[in-house]
Structure formats: structure tokens, C-alpha cells
Records
---
Amino acid sequence: MNLSLVVQQSPGITAVAHAIQLAVAPVFLLSGIGAMLAVLTSRLSRIIDRGRALEAQLAASPPDAATHIHAELAALARRAQLISRAITLCTITALLVCAVIATLFLGAFASFDTSVPVALFFVAAMVTFFAGLLFFLREIFVATANLRIGPR
């Protein structure tokens, strides 16, 4: 006796199973974006901590040292702005990937063609992720341009 004849699946369960199969790749992408967001927020936290430490030093600094501290604070402000933009874009990316997953499931339940909206959401997600990575790269360039190792 063929088991496939005994267990018949309803079309609804088949559609949901297919939607789950299609949603697996975007879910992995979502976890990668989450890891990227963790890196970005960690960098932002370090920038903020360094800025607070420099602002505390600024009050007790002589004028020649204050000029150097102001320059470093300006670089930190620029880095924070770049990382903030990268975080915003990567968060939008995560939201767009969530929209891909939701659209796949809505299409499975409502039985409509999801190819165009899913493609548009996915392309938009990749564009925003690309832009977020560019801001991250720019922040790294600013950080390394102001890098000093060893005595001044």
C-alpha cells in the first residue's frame, strides 16, 4: 500500500509548507543582518564612550591639548553620524526582508502571485544593505584615518 495515498495533504497545508520552504533563505539573511546590526551598534557604543571620555578631559585640558581633543571629537561625531546611517539602512533592510517573508506567506494563504512584490522587496533590501555597508566602510575609513598608535 502506497503511503502517499493514505496521507493526503490539503492544498492549504501544501501551500504553507511551500511558503516555509521559500522563507528559509530570507530568514537566514535576516539573521546575518541582525549580526551586522550588532557589530554596528557595538561600534556606535564605543564611539559614544570615547566621546564622553574626551569631553570629560576637555574641561581640564590646556588650550593646546583642547585643540587636539576638539579635532578628535569632530572625527567621532562624523563616525557616529556614519554608523547611525548604516544602522538605519540595515534596519530598513531587515524590515524589507520581513516584508519578503510576510508576502510569501500572504501569497500562500490568499493564492496570489507574489513574484513581483517579493522581487521588489528583495531588490530594495539589497540596495539598502549595500548602502548601509558603504556607510560602514566610510566610517572605518574615518576611524583609521584618525588612528594613532603609540606615543604622540
---
Amino acid sequence: MAQRPQKKLFSRKKSCRFCGTPEQQIDYKDVKTLRGFVSERGKIIPRRIVGTCATHQRQLCEAIKKARQIAFLPYSGSTQG
């Protein structure tokens, strides 16, 4: 069998959106921002995919959970079958 040449994949290093702009804060009342970190199924997207730092990912998870508790965000995704 012949060896296939390996493709070189270039991926840019993900940077934390909240570290780059200090005026942007994580708030449980800001549903528009929090929706970007939740999948369409309602799951919190992990930090290795989103690119947030560990500190802000923890704050983000707490804000999403608090927003779910108060019913700003749904626990699950859309209910259309």
C-alpha cells in the first residue's frame, strides 16, 4: 500500500472573547450573549470548542445555569419534533 501524503491542517489559536474585551461582562440576564454558548439541543458548549479561558468558562456555566433556573433560557432545545 502506498502512503498517502498527510494534509497539514492550520487552525488559529482560539482566544477568549471575554479576556480580549474587558468591558464585555458575563451576566445571566444577557440572554443574547448566553445563547451563543448553548447548542441547539440546550447543552453548554465546552471550552475547547468555544475557545474561552477556564475562568470565564466557569463564570459562563454559572450564568447559564442561573438563567435556566429563572427561565430566561430553556433547559432543553427546541421542542419541535
---
Amino acid sequence: MKKNSNPLKALDPFFTSVGKLTVIQRALIVVVSYALCIGGFVWFSYMPKMEGIDRMSTELATLEKDIERATKKAKRLPEMRKKRKEINTRYRAALKTLPEQSEIPTLLTNISTAGIESGLQFISFKPGRESVVGFYAEIPIYMTVRGDYHKVSVFFDKISRMSRIVNVKDISVSPQNTNKGLVLNTACRAVTYRFVKTAEAK
């Protein structure tokens, strides 16, 4: 039995049916087929690519904003480094005016020596309990000295010239007549400060 060598003959019924259609019907088939092809291309190829483009556009805009912010910060970097250097310099200078714990006895001795060198007599000299305030601690020193006005003034002047910070507060003066004339009993609270480390402050 001889096989059919032309496979297109199997489509003869289809072509025969199409041939019987009107021109309008055949035109509609062409239009629908074309629309299906275009729709398939748009749905499966064009739209995914457009979504990818939109996503990449959003990412690009975000990156451009990040780059703009980073560029502004980079321009300010020399200025910020200069400010940091200035702050560090001021901080180190401030620390020099705040003694460490080990320097407090020496500072108390210096205050006492300043009073003696000014010609004053110490009636009382008592360090109080320190209180921590942030990165420094206040150490009060309650003292009463005896001497004339000039000697007391010289003593306070010596304290103000010390390299360490010492503030004299709550000054109370009581005049007293003696064989050597009028003298002043001067009571005050001298407050000095020391640097407090972070762990100690906590």
C-alpha cells in the first residue's frame, strides 16, 4: 500500500472550509489571529520588560539620591574634621583644669599653702563629700581663715590663678578686734573639680 507523500493533503479539508467562508469572515480570522499574536507578545514579553524597567528606574532614582547625600557629606568632611580637631583641643585643655583623683591631695595642699603664704591663719579646713555631675565631680572644701582684708584678698587672688579650677563661694566675713587691730574671720566654701571617667560616672 502506497503512503501519501504530501502531508499538506491532510489540511485539504481545512482549506476547503476556509475557502467556503466569506471575505469578511476570513478577514475576521486574520484580524483575530493577528490580535492574539500581538496580545501574546505584549503579555509575555513587553509587559514583564516594562515592569523591570520601572523597577530599575525606581532603584536608580534611590541610588541617585543616596549619591547626592553622600556627595554633600563628602564636601563637608574637611569642615567636620576641622571642627572635631578644635573640639578635641578644647576638651584636652579643659581636662588640664580638672585634676585626676590622685591629684586632689596635692591640690588641697596647694590651697593651704596659698593661705599660709598670704599670711592667713587657718581656723578650719575640711574637704566635703564630692558629688558627680556628668563627666566631672565637685569637691567642696569648707574653710575658715583669719587675717586682715588685704591678706584675704591676696589669698583669693592666688586661688583664682591656680592651673586647676577652684571656685570660692558662700563667703561669710566676721570682723574681730584683737591686740593687732581689726582682723577678719572669713568662712567660705571652695569648690574644685575632677575629671570622672565614663565607667565611674555610670
